[in-house]
Amino acid sequence: MVSEVLCYFSSMRTTIAAALLLAASHALAQPSAPVAPPKAIVLRAARMFDGTSDSVIQHGAVVVQGNRIVAAGASVAIPADAQVIDLGDVTLLPGLIDAHVHLTEQSGENYYLNYFQDLMRQPAEQALLATTFARKTIDAGFTTVRNVGASDYIDVGLRNAINNGWIVGPRMLVAVHAISATGGHGDGDPIPPSKGIPSLGPIDGVCNGPSECRAAVRYQIKYGADVIKFMPSGGVLSLSDPVDAPELSQEEMNAIVEEAHHWGRKVAAHCHGDAAAKMAVMAGVDSIEHGSFIKPDTLELMREKGVYLVPTLMAGPPPIAAKAKSAMAARDIMFRAAIKTGVKIAFGTDAAVYPHGLNGHEFVLLTGLGMPPAATLHSATTVAAALLGVDDRATLTTGKLADIIAVPGNPLDDIKVMERVAFVMKDGVVVKGAK
Ligand SMILES: [Zn+2]
After folding, report:
1. 318 Cα: distance to centroid of ligand 1 (angstroms)
2. What is the per-residue burial (b if ≥16 Cβ within 10 Å, else e) of 349-362?
3. How far apart are the CA of 100 and the centre of ligand 1, in A?
């Protein structure tokens, strides 16, 4: 019976595929009317940071045709019929990348009220709320985000809605559920089982033992994950787990990373503790998120193995105060050591822990702890793009996607201007600023 059903579905699939092919061949056979190429748009500005060096170019211009950059620099030929947008005393930059966000939620001032409201909200309602977070994020200049953990598949829905053009938002790489041990940072809160809330399993990202860990990875990919996120250590925002202890065994971490890599997915590890970070690095992880308690020798190991640090300095004080304070003091020390070590630092903010749209403040925090301004701009463009595995964006150069922003003044003189993004173009379409 089971095999009959499977046969039925696979033959259905074959039929659908054949129909689609037929439709496509018809479309090809139709004589198509000549389509005029879209009119070029030229963005002019007093300055430009194109992402290929540490300096700004005076009198920058970017020529956009369709959704691509076709020319950029201080002296480019302006096509005769182009629409020229002169943005004045601003600096053009590549659209920014935030490698650590949660666009599907947001913590409020009152933790307990927020917790209750989240619990009672329908997934559809939460998804509609998430569209407002997506809008705030792109308006802040972030045209690509890596969404590292969500519930109810809202991240998948949001990504698809943006890709379909139903709503305006950043390009999203999503992780679906973060993968965690039972009782770990990704598991539900310790609400007594008698209250009727079911415990979570591999489909929800909660797993024990290497084989369940592999199943958890496969489930997330099945339902749309572009990237895998897992929880080697405890969290600052969860109630039942210590912040710095490893929560998965080495065998479990190896299984998660190996399985994800088999499927061509990169792996992000939420990690505050040093021991857990070391284990995640040994498992072959691509990035360590937060990293509050990481010691210099582990940072050195990360540098050697090319593992990125995503420091999320914006993740501010939550209600679980003692845990938060010790994590934040340690994190500042860790971050200064990371700069010294030369580990690759990708920009990420943990948006949702603070109100969406304030992502740009991370630049101020990064420079405040000694990272040079140009290095922070690279961390949110080329470095983050390399971590995400996307090479079609993040510089203002010929052939790249036309994701372009502008900030007033010069960010290399005053990094605070990164909090005041004045203009955003995504995929060749102006979504904020001059029309
Ligand atoms: Zn996070």
Report:
1. 13
2. bbbbbbebbebbbb
3. 6
Residues 217 and 328 placed together within one structural domain of the fold: yes
Distance 102 CA to ligand 1 centre (A): 6
Q: Is residue 14 part of a domain?
A: no
The alpha carbon of 234 and the centre of ligand 1 are apart by a number of angstroms equal to: 12
Q: How many angstroms is it from 341 CA to the middle of ligand 1?
A: 24
State the amino acid at position 233 in one-letter form: S
Q: How far is the CA of 226 from the centre of ligand 1 (A)?
A: 16
Residue 379 belongs to domain with CATH number: 3.20.20.140
pTM: 0.91
Domain count, the chain: 2
Expressed as residue numbers, the domain containing 88 is 34-95+395-435
Give the CATH number, domain containing residue 64. Answer: 2.30.40.10
Clarify whether residues 339 and 245 are in a common domain.
yes
101 alpha carbon – ligand 1 mean position (Å) = 6
pLDDT tens sequence across 250-268: 999 999 999 999 999 999 9
21 inside domain: no
pLDDT for the residue 35: 73
Q: What is the pLDDT of residues 94-145, one digit of tens each?
A: 999 999 999 999 998 888 999 899 989 999 999 999 999 999 999 999 999 9
Question: How far apart are the CA of 148 and the centre of ligand 1, in A?
Answer: 6
Do 195 and 50 lie in one domain? The reply is: no
Mind listing the pLDDT tens digit for each residue in 346-392?
Answer: 999 999 999 999 999 999 999 999 999 999 999 999 999 999 999 99
Using a CB cutoff of 5 Å, list residues around ligand 1, an ion: 350
Q: Residue 362's closest CA among 409, 407, 318, 315? A: 315
Asked whether residue 212 is assigned to any structural domain, the reply reads yes
392 CA to middle of ligand 1, Å? 25
Same domain, 156 and 219: yes
Provide the edge-to-edge strand list for the sheet that holds 171-174. Answer: 96-101, 142-147, 171-174
Tell how far the Cα of 150 is from the centroid of ligand 1, in angstroms: 10
* Cα 296 to middle of ligand 1, angstroms: 23
